[in-house]
């Protein structure tokens, strides 16, 4: 890769990240500086109730490539990422969850795949320890997405996704969920819009449950109901495809 060959925007949604924020931002900055990208990092706080904004302000004041934006009202994680992508300036745009359970170095292969010509590059999480609740839910949900949405996608919910910005903006406008189901929407709609997608396998490193804003027990039912409702969107795409083939 030639130096400064990429224009990158990295979106990071924030919500009550006080315990992990500063160290995670340092890791991200070190990686991006090491690879000498021309980049911007867009931090968007979704109305945190702890010292997230205070920590983020201090960091952005000291690092000119990091910018902070704050929601007046809580929008949800999906809405936050959507906002960040829309304000991004880079030709390559992506996001990573600040808990870095998908390790930060996985940013690099995703960016390189976009540079190679893929429209969407995401991490397919590989779990080191299996047969725990999170693994079961991840695999079960992935199976349901394949079955209901009729796609070959392995991991729609991963918190590390990168896009060709020009290609993803029209898809972004077709998403409606403002919460965690947005990940499923953006991936499935990208697939049906014929975007070129690659899923890169990478180790998932489980962090403390207290650092996650996802409640895997209570959210399971919500995910399933949203997936059932989302069938209408998939059906419209399949009907359009059938008519085009007639």
From TrEMBL:
One of its GO terms (biological process) is protein N-linked glycosylation. Coiled coil: none annotated. It comes from the Bacteria. Residues 9-155 form the Glycosyltransferase 2-like domain. SUPFAM superfamilies: Nucleotide-diphospho-sugar transferases (SSF53448). Gene3D superfamilies: Spore Coat Polysaccharide Biosynthesis Protein SpsA, Chain A. InterPro entries: Glyco_trans_2-like, Nucleotide-diphossugar_trans. This is Glycosyltransferase 2-like domain-containing protein. It comes from Candidatus Schekmanbacteria bacterium RIFCSPLOWO2_12_FULL_38_15.
């Amino acid at each position: 890769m030639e130096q400064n060959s990429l224009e990158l925007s990295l979106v990071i949604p924030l919500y009550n990240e006080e315990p992990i924020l500063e160290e995670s931002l340092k890791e991200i900055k070190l990686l991006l500086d090491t690879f000498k990208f021309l980049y911007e990092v867009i931090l968007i706080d979704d109305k945190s109730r702890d010292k997230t904004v205070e920590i983020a302000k201090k960091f952005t004041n000291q690092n000119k490539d990091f910018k902070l934006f704050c929601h007046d009202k809580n929008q949800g994680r999906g809405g936050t990422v959507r906002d960040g992508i829309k304000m991004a300036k880079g030709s390559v745009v992506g996001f990573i969850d600040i808990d870095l359970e998908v390790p930060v170095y996985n940013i690099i292969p995703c960016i390189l795949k976009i540079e190679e010509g893929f429209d969407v590059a995401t991490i397919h999480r590989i779990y080191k320890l299996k047969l725990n609740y999170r693994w079961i839910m991840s695999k079960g949900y992935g199976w349901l997405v394949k079955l209901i949405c009729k796609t070959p996608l392995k991991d729609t919910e991963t918190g590390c996704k990168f896009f060709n910005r020009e290609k993803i903006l029209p898809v972004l406008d077709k998403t409606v969920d403002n919460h965690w189901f947005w990940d499923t929407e953006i991936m499935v709609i990208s697939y049906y819009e014929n975007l070129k997608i690659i899923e890169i396998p990478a180790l998932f490193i489980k962090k403390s449950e207290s650092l996650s804003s996802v409640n895997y027990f209570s959210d399971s039912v919500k995910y399933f109901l949203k997936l059932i409702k989302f069938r209408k969107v998939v059906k419209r795409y399949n009907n359009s495809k059938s008519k085009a083939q007639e």
